[in-house]
Design goal:
The chain has about 120 residues and is mainly beta. The chain contains one helix and ten strands, in the order E-E-E-E-E-E-E-E-E-E-H. The strands form two sheets. It has a six-stranded antiparallel sheet, with no helix packed on it.
Amino acid sequence: MFIRKDDQEAVYKPHLQNGEGAPLCRTILPKEEAAGSGRLFAVFTLQPGESIGYHTHEGEFEIYYVIRGTGTVTENGEVYELRPGDMAQCKNGSSHGIRNAGNEELEFLAVILYDREKAE
Protein backbone atom coordinates (compact mmCIF):
# COMPACT_ATOMS: atom_id res chain seq x y z
CA MET A 1 0.00 0.00 0.00
CA PHE A 2 1.17 3.51 -0.79
CA ILE A 3 -0.79 6.72 -0.13
CA ARG A 4 0.62 10.06 -1.24
CA LYS A 5 0.23 13.00 1.13
CA ASP A 6 -2.06 14.78 -1.35
CA ASP A 7 -4.36 11.73 -1.36
CA GLN A 8 -4.65 11.46 2.44
CA GLU A 9 -7.98 12.65 3.82
CA ALA A 10 -7.56 16.00 5.58
CA VAL A 11 -10.49 17.47 7.53
CA TYR A 12 -10.93 20.20 10.09
CA LYS A 13 -12.39 18.97 13.40
CA PRO A 14 -14.13 21.93 15.10
CA HIS A 15 -14.11 21.76 18.91
CA LEU A 16 -12.64 18.24 18.93
CA GLN A 17 -13.38 16.67 22.34
CA ASN A 18 -14.76 20.11 23.36
CA GLY A 19 -11.42 21.76 22.58
CA GLU A 20 -10.75 25.20 21.12
CA GLY A 21 -10.65 25.98 17.40
CA ALA A 22 -10.71 23.52 14.53
CA PRO A 23 -7.57 21.34 14.38
CA LEU A 24 -6.66 19.86 11.01
CA CYS A 25 -6.54 16.04 10.98
CA ARG A 26 -4.72 14.32 8.09
CA THR A 27 -5.36 10.57 8.15
CA ILE A 28 -2.22 8.62 7.26
CA LEU A 29 -3.72 5.14 7.51
CA PRO A 30 -7.50 4.65 7.40
CA LYS A 31 -8.97 2.59 10.24
CA GLU A 32 -10.14 -0.03 7.73
CA GLU A 33 -6.51 -0.67 6.73
CA ALA A 34 -5.18 -1.03 10.31
CA ALA A 35 -5.89 -4.80 10.54
CA GLY A 36 -8.04 -4.33 13.64
CA SER A 37 -5.14 -3.01 15.71
CA GLY A 38 -6.37 0.54 16.19
CA ARG A 39 -8.61 3.35 15.03
CA LEU A 40 -6.39 6.38 14.40
CA PHE A 41 -3.09 6.99 12.65
CA ALA A 42 -3.01 10.69 11.72
CA VAL A 43 -1.11 13.94 11.80
CA PHE A 44 -2.80 16.84 13.56
CA THR A 45 -2.01 20.49 13.01
CA LEU A 46 -3.11 22.95 15.70
CA GLN A 47 -2.84 26.70 15.29
CA PRO A 48 -1.72 28.79 18.29
CA GLY A 49 -4.36 28.51 21.04
CA GLU A 50 -6.13 25.53 19.46
CA SER A 51 -6.62 22.36 21.48
CA ILE A 52 -8.05 18.87 21.60
CA GLY A 53 -10.13 18.78 24.77
CA TYR A 54 -9.57 16.61 27.82
CA HIS A 55 -10.98 13.11 27.25
CA THR A 56 -10.66 9.51 28.51
CA HIS A 57 -9.52 6.41 26.64
CA GLU A 58 -11.25 3.12 27.47
CA GLY A 59 -10.05 -0.13 25.87
CA GLU A 60 -7.36 1.72 23.94
CA PHE A 61 -4.35 3.99 24.36
CA GLU A 62 -3.10 7.03 22.44
CA ILE A 63 0.37 8.23 21.57
CA TYR A 64 1.29 11.79 20.58
CA TYR A 65 4.66 12.38 18.89
CA VAL A 66 5.54 16.04 18.26
CA ILE A 67 6.91 16.82 14.80
CA ARG A 68 7.14 20.61 15.13
CA GLY A 69 5.98 23.37 17.45
CA THR A 70 5.38 23.42 21.19
CA GLY A 71 2.43 21.97 23.06
CA THR A 72 1.19 21.26 26.53
CA VAL A 73 -0.41 17.94 27.37
CA THR A 74 -2.59 17.53 30.42
CA GLU A 75 -2.70 13.91 31.52
CA ASN A 76 -4.59 12.81 34.61
CA GLY A 77 -4.35 16.37 35.97
CA GLU A 78 -0.59 16.81 35.37
CA VAL A 79 0.65 19.30 32.75
CA TYR A 80 3.69 18.54 30.57
CA GLU A 81 5.38 20.61 27.87
CA LEU A 82 6.15 18.84 24.60
CA ARG A 83 8.68 19.88 21.96
CA PRO A 84 9.75 18.28 18.66
CA GLY A 85 10.81 14.68 19.20
CA ASP A 86 8.89 14.33 22.48
CA MET A 87 6.26 11.61 22.97
CA ALA A 88 3.33 11.33 25.37
CA GLN A 89 1.29 8.16 25.91
CA CYS A 90 -2.18 8.18 27.43
CA LYS A 91 -2.77 4.64 28.68
CA ASN A 92 -6.04 2.72 28.79
CA GLY A 93 -8.33 4.25 31.44
CA SER A 94 -6.39 7.53 31.57
CA SER A 95 -7.44 11.01 30.41
CA HIS A 96 -5.60 13.67 28.45
CA GLY A 97 -5.82 16.72 26.19
CA ILE A 98 -3.35 18.78 24.17
CA ARG A 99 -3.00 22.51 23.44
CA ASN A 100 -0.78 24.50 21.13
CA ALA A 101 1.15 26.58 23.67
CA GLY A 102 3.44 28.28 21.16
CA ASN A 103 3.32 31.01 18.53
CA GLU A 104 3.65 28.67 15.55
CA GLU A 105 1.74 25.64 14.30
CA LEU A 106 1.91 22.51 16.44
CA GLU A 107 2.13 19.38 14.33
CA PHE A 108 2.06 15.92 15.90
CA LEU A 109 1.46 12.31 15.02
CA ALA A 110 -1.48 10.75 16.88
CA VAL A 111 -1.92 6.98 17.05
CA ILE A 112 -4.77 5.21 18.86
CA LEU A 113 -4.27 1.47 19.32
CA TYR A 114 -6.57 -1.03 21.00
CA ASP A 115 -5.38 -2.36 24.34
CA ARG A 116 -5.52 -6.07 23.58
CA GLU A 117 -3.99 -6.95 26.96
CA LYS A 118 -7.01 -5.41 28.75
CA ALA A 119 -9.48 -6.92 26.27
CA GLU A 120 -8.40 -10.53 26.91
